[in-house]
Amino acid sequence: MGQELETGAPGPGAGGAFESLAAGDVFSARGKNVLLTGAAGIIGSAIARVFARNGAALYMTDIEAAKLEALRAELGGRARGHAADLRDPGAMTAVADGALAFFAGPVDAAIHRARLEKKNARLGLPE
Ligand SMILES: NC(=O)c1ccc[n+]([C@@H]2O[C@H](COP(=O)([O-])OP(=O)(O)OC[C@H]3O[C@@H](n4cnc5c(N)ncnc54)[C@H](O)[C@@H]3O)[C@@H](O)[C@H]2O)c1
Asked: 102 CB contacts (<8 Å, ≥6 apart)?
C-alpha cells in the first residue's frame, strides 16, 4: 500500500545530474502543487530539485523508499515522500489521497517519470 515518509529539516540543496538546467531560477512555481512519480530517478529527482528551488510544494512518489527519503530530506520545506508501487492501484489511490491532503488544494501539475519497464525487456534484449 506504500508508506508516507515524515517531513524533516531542510537539507543542503541540489546536486547531480541535470545540474546546469537546475542551476538557475528559471521560473516561479511559488504556491503551485506538484505531484511527481519516479521522483527518486535521474529525471524525477532533477525535476523535483528545480520545482523545490522555485517554490513549489512537492508530493513525490517512487518505489525506492530509501532514495525517496534521502531526496525529501535534501529538499526539506514543502516536500513530502510517499513510497509506493505504481502497479498497485490501491497504493496509487493512497498516493492521490495523500497528495490532496498534503496540498490542501488542487494539484497544479502531475509529472510522471517512473520507469515501469526495463528498456532491454522492451527491446527484447537480455537484461
Ligand atoms: N534518462 C534519459 O536520458 C531518458 C531519456 C528519454 C526518456 N526517458 C524516460 O524517462 C523515464 C525516467 O527516466 P530516468 O532516467 O529518470 O529513469 P530512472 O530509472 O533513473 O528512474 C525511474 C524511477 O522509476 C522508479 N520506478 C520503477 N518502477 C516503479 C514502480 N513500479 N513504482 C514506482 N516507481 C517505480 C524507479 O525506482 C526510479 O526511481 C523513463 O521512462 C525513461 O525511459 C529517460
From this structure: 57, 59, 80
